[in-house]
Amino acid sequence: MKLLFSVALGAASWSLTEHVMHRYLGHVFARNRNFFAVEHVRHHATTSYFAPAWKKGAAAAVVAAIVTPVASMIVGPRRGLAYTAGFVSTYLGYEWLHYRAHVAAPTNRYEAWLRKHHFYHHFHNPSVNHGVTSPIWDRVFGTYEEPDVIRVPARHAMPWLRDPETGKLDPRFAADYEIVDKRKPKAAA
Ligand SMILES: [Zn+2]
Ligand SMILES: [Zn+2]
Known about the structure:
Oligomer: single chain
Bound molecules: zinc ion
Strand content: under 5%
Radius of gyration: 18 Å
Shape: elongated
Strand order of the largest sheet: 1-2
Helix content: 55-70%
């Protein structure tokens, strides 16, 4: 049970890190061009861009190499390792869910929620909704905004948003999304 608790604590730590890192390194202090901001600014500018997997793997390895001995010193090697396992596996889960949000249509209610929450951050207000996999920390720190209809600029439209036959917005997503063409006067940037 104690090991399971350590895993859960590691997972919760990642969840908080996901919010804090994205909010501060990715946006608030992005001008410093820290390691995260360089990739993240590019992800915002070209929404189909993701940092290469090797960089993410390297980041996870560095984090594991630092977190494991520190956690082991505090709670012992078994629980320290369990904590790291919880942290790193939820980090990888986040990477997977975020990537899928951009490239694949939602397959369940959670994925549908995640996409609206995240694309609101991308296309409406980048200073809110920093959590990708959960709204918890945005709610705690007052940076949560409930998305309504997401207006997606045509050049950033996720491929799954379009009906493959017509190339227009897939009617399945019409209640939640709009594709905004630049040529129209009310285009949202
Ligand atoms: Zn994104
Ligand atoms: Zn962002």
